[in-house]
Amino acid sequence: MQDRPNIATAIPKRRYQVGDYAATVLGEIESSDPRRYRFILAMVPGGERTPTLYVTCEATPPKESAQGNYRLRLINEAMSEVMDTADRWGDLDSFADQALKLAAQALGLQREQQKRLL
Known about the structure:
The chain is mainly beta. Helices cover about 15% and strands about 45% of the residues. It has one helix and seven strands; from the N terminus they run E-E-E-E-E-E-H-E. The protein has one helix at about 90-105, and strands at about 5-20, 20-30, 35-45, 55-60, 70-75, 80-85, 115. The longest helix is centred in the last third of the chain and has 16 residues, at about 90-105.
């Protein structure tokens, strides 16, 4: 998977069940990637250990920060694409809500109930 986050350490901030997927929002992320992550949503299919989709909140490069300080990026097997740039993605609640919507849409889970576990 292109651009898969290389996470050294992270703290789970939220956990959800979305259909057959386990969704975890990570914060306080240390990574060897050139991107500076604020939050990462990882979607793991039931019975598996490896995420198949990520939504990341990463710091916008200084030259591009006029649109906002944070970028939302959707990463899966088919793509790695910035979906939006805004300051609000630096807020945990705003990020979690939008990241779950993007993930559900990308995985065809819009009709599945999202149950918060943590």
